[in-house]
Amino acid sequence: MALDDSNIIEGQIEETPNQAVSELTGADMLMNLESMIKSHISGLDKLKEELKQYKELLDDIFKNDPTYQEHSEQAKEASKIKANTKKEILKRPQAADLDNKIKSFRSQIKETQGALSDYLREFQRLSGVNEIEGEDGEVREIVYVATLRRKSKF
């Protein structure tokens, strides 16, 4: 069977059956995406429930083992002693000063990371670029992480 090239214009792309599938409307793509999200949420909920059941079974095994219980009690007591010792050491001026500095630095890092995230989002929106070169010459990729939280019922 010979091909009829008379209707093909140079540069024109002829649609194949596979292309028709990929040319879903925005609404169709959104509905498919929403369906996949809901399916994954349900799947995660089921996996979490199964995990919870197996964890409870394993916890029951530990609760019913006398050797484990004895060691657990000893570990709790050692942990209490350690925590009290730490509190006493943190009362020393030098240790208290260092602890406050550490807390201050952690707070500054958290605030700076929040601001950087906002700047990166705006930079990406305005430039359309997902990479940025740092002052050290290293190229970094802008990455966003999406999570899903239950909405409070008020």
Describe the structure.
With 154 residues, the protein is mainly alpha-helical. The protein is built from 4 helices and 2 strands, in the order H-H-H-H-E-E.
Give short descriptive properties of this protein.
flat, 2 strands, about 5% strand
Class based on secondary structure composition and strand pairing: mainly alpha
Q: Write down how many β-strands occur, each being a DSSP E stretch of 2 or more residues.
A: 2
The percent range for strand residues is under 5%
User: Helicity, in percent?
Assistant: 55-70%
Output the number of helix runs: 4
| Rg (C-alpha, Å) | 29 Å
Could you state the order of secondary-structure elements as H and E?
Answer: HHHHEE
The backbone outline, from C-alpha atoms, is flat
Distance, first to last CA: 69 Å
On the 0-100 scale, what is the average pLDDT?
A: 86
Main beta sheet: 2 strands, antiparallel
Which spans have pLDDT < 50 for at least 5 consecutive residues? none
Strand order of the largest sheet: 1-2
